[in-house]
Amino acid sequence: MTEKIIASDYLSPIQQFGGMGKIHSVFDRSFNIQVNEQLININNYRSYLAGFGMYLPEEQFRAIMPYVEPGNLVKIRSHSLTFYSTKGTIVLPLTDVAFVSLQVKDLTFTAAERNSLKEILTQQNLVEKIGLPLEKRALEIFEVLRHPEPDWQQVTAYLIGRGKGLTPSGDDLLVAYQAMFYAFDQPAEKLATALAVPLSTTDVSKAYISASIKGYVNSLIYRLLTDLKSQDQQLIEKDVKDVMKIGHSSGIDLCFGMLLALESITLE
């Protein structure tokens, strides 16, 4: 049986962002297509899907990679992506894509499930491992985030774009915080509004932020949240560890954002 293309339903329909895009950035086993303001991440990692991502099986991924160079054009149709390059063109059929939900707004949790996740995250000593220097202002902002109704303008002004890499640590923290507020049915709109303005950060990070505003997370956070219902401590701990392994410090920053959000939620 041939493996299917798997995509986040955030990308359905695929042509919603526009009919023409270009290759934005290329990595070892993934690349991004930019369509107007939106990025579409295409990868060959079986275990990881971005909220705005699509997984291609090995054979298809290998076939299109020679045509993938920054700046090359990509035509987007409901049933295909056409890649243009100096080597010629190649068509990736999208007639049989398995769309999966990475949307956390519809999940529901009990206070016990929430406490269980909070406890496991607390045990990881995350603050010592995050990608941000623990300067006085950072610690003050973390304290603000531990309480309901923070001043979002002050928080985003400090955190957005702060830290190294494709997704700065401050951004990762807020992406996870936003997701937790949606997942645990908290008032997420004020943060979403603060994040919906033009932001000074990387394009890749903006794509994760845009997805989080709509309640979309990466597949590892989604799995962690759905496994929370199982009340299987070992499984949940493994899921947390898997999230922590993302990128250089991205996963740790995401987990710390989740913890701060959980600490701010008044427990019934």
What this model shows, in words?
The chain is of the alpha+beta class and 268 residues long. The protein folds into two domains: 3-98, no CATH class; 109-262, no CATH class. The chain has ten helices and nine strands. Strands 8-7-6-2-3-4-5-1-9 form a nine-stranded mixed beta sheet, with helices on both faces. Helix 2 (111-122) packs across helix 9 (233-244) and helix 5 packs parallel to helix 7 (203-213). The longest helix is centred in the middle third of the chain and has 15 residues, at 169-183. The model has no long low-confidence stretch (mean pLDDT 95).
Topology diagram in text:
Elements lengths: L4 E4 L11 E7 L3 E6 L2 E6 L9 E3 L2 H7 L8 E5 L2 E6 L2 E6 L3 E4 L10 H12 L13 H10 L6 H8 L9 H15 L5 H7 L7 H11 L5 H9 L5 H12 L5 H15 L4
Parallel strand pairs: 1-9, 4-5
Antiparallel strand pairs: 1-5, 2-3, 2-6, 3-4, 6-7, 7-8
Helix pairs in contact: 2-9, 2-10, 3-4, 5-7, 5-10, 6-7, 8-9, 9-10
Pfam families: AllH
Protein name: DUF2877 domain-containing protein
InterPro entries: AllH-like
Number of strands: 9
Question: Biggest sheet: strands side by side, in what order?
Answer: 8-7-6-2-3-4-5-1-9
Alpha plus pi helix count: 10
Structural class: alpha+beta
Largest β-sheet summary: 9 strands, mixed
Give the overall pLDDT as a whole number: 95
Relative strand content: 15-25%
